[in-house]
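Page 37, continued from 36.
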């Protein structure tokens, strides 16, 4: 490659790297904003259903994916439900199903242990 072509490639690479860094910073900022409510929702699930932190996280992720709902929106609804605001019926059913599935897996694991 000529010197001009190499310089052009370097400029494009630098622009791509800068764009990637900007996206990453935006994603990190969003995560910092939503993390507290997600942690609260995990606590609600832990207290309500006797889940450990990992199980509560798994339930939130499973319901978020199955309901095609952002995790932070699900977390907000879960926390609001504690204060009496009803969780939408579809999310409530998904949440119940995820906790029931987790309980069934727990039970099966205990039965297979010696």
């Amino acid at each position: 490659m000529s010197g001009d072509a190499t310089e052009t490639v370097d400029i494009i690479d630098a622009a791509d790297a800068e764009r990637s860094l900007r996206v990453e910073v935006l994603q990190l900022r969003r995560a910092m904003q939503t993390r507290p409510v997600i942690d609260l929702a995990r606590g609600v699930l832990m207290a309500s259903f006797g889940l450990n932190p990992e199980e509560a996280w798994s339930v939130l992720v499973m319901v978020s994916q199955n309901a095609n709902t952002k995790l932070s929106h699900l977390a907000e609804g879960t926390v609001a439900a504690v204060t009496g605001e009803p969780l939408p019926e579809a999310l409530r059913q998904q949440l119940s199903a995820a906790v029931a599935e987790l309980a069934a897996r727990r039970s099966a694991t205990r039965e297979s242990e010696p």
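The chain has a mean pLDDT of 87. Flag for discussion at group meeting. The two ends are 67 Å apart (CA to CA).
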